Amino acid sequence: MRRLYPILIVTLIAGCLGACAREGDSQYHVTISTSPEIARRHASPTSPGSTSSTVPASSTTTLPVAPPPDSRIPPDLDAIRAALQHLVTTSDPPPVPYDRDRFGGWIDADHDCQDTRSEVLAAESRAPIVFASLGECRVLTGSWRDAYTGEVVTEAARLDVDHFVPLEAAWIAGAWRWTDEQRGSFANDLLNPEALVAVTASANRSKGSRGPAEWKPNLRSSWCDYAVSWIAVKTRWALTVETNERSALRTMLQGC
Fold this sequence. Notes:
Elements: H1 6-19, H2 36-41, E1 51-52, H3 77-86, H4 116-124, E2 130-131, E3 139-145, E4 152-155, E5 159-163, H5 167-172, H6 180-187, E6 196-200, H7 201-207, H8 223-236, H9 243-253
Parallel strand pairs: 1-2
Antiparallel strand pairs: 2-3, 3-4, 5-6
Helix pairs in contact: 1-3, 1-8, 3-8, 8-9
């Protein structure tokens, strides 16, 4: 599974249990243009490390490399189960049809020429990355482990950056009420490392817009991380759950 930041997740859940946005509240909005997560993804330009395909070794830069899976801190399951318990249950369909365009596309929030996709690929690579050009805008190669299948990929072109809670699922769970600006913030949420994940294009298409009641990663060992991340995203954005979705998440948490 994509590396988790359990302390961040538990802090987020604990805060949201008391103060998360309610339906229609302006607190849904995330100002990603000032995101500390974007700043964290970039290392000092004078550090040694990854190279652009046209930059000499003496001008190399380092970008964060994900820690190995065994370095993760186990999640606080009591807090996570409490967060799941507090999510509102509903099965009512939204009164307006899903419209993908209302979420917009990838953006370059900090104007460094790297859009959200490139930011995620750079942050999640487990090896130094190579950019496609001197401007260091588009990631070309690195090393990524597909969170859903376990496959290791070195070519960025083979990867999709998946919205962990799919956009259509978010729409059904309450995003239909948001403004387009709020939907764009959700679609480009770099504040939370569990919101977006680099996976193979085939795995992303297999998942589609389905949630944990209809689809689970091939790797059973990743089910715990999957459930924790799903609950964290839904808690942060005050999204609802369906009864069968809640049941599936509880089952997945049993493997933690």
